[in-house]
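Hi U.,

Before I forget, here's the chain from the pilot set. I'm dumping it here mostly so it's searchable later in email.
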Amino acid sequence: MSEPNTKNKILDVGERLFAQNGYDRTSLREITAKAGVNLAAVSYHFGSKDKLFEAILKRRITPLNEIREHRMHRVIKTAKARHTLPSVEELLLAFIEPTLEFIDNTPESLDFFIIVNRCTMESNGVERNCFIKLMQPTLMKFYHPLCESLPRLSKEVVFMRFMFAIGSMVHTIRMLKMMNQNPEKNTVIPHKVDLSVITEELIKFVTSGMENP
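Structure:
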């Protein structure tokens, strides 16, 4: 197996096992056994379990954040051209829509979002710290224009509501992916929901929450 293929195999298997078992209950030996490689390969490509976990998050989060920031800059540029501030809805759409597009185009995305959900809910420091490290720069780039577009709210309230919006996005994605993958067990929504509908309704919901006096 070539080096790039070995590295990608470790990332793929690691992502699946971390999603299934969590960080603490997943060992490097289990990952290497499932990937068909030895421990030396993990050490060579990543160095440690912590670094492997960070690499698994980074390969998904980094391109997503690049798209988010590109769309955010486009929203701000368009708003300046019309001599207004960007709307809250436009900013939230720039953040959320790339995530939903990723879901629609990436069959293995459920594993990634299960890991993200663990990062935001479980107490393990490695999971939480890796996620914060990778997300914080982009979150702050969105946070500042959101504050400008919501001048009547304190910065603390804007931050909390932005976190609530992100939490709504992550939870919605996970639940809908699980229901769509197990339609026979889904007694709530009897058919697969179109991503454009999810995007529209989610943006309405979180925008209303952000803008509420």
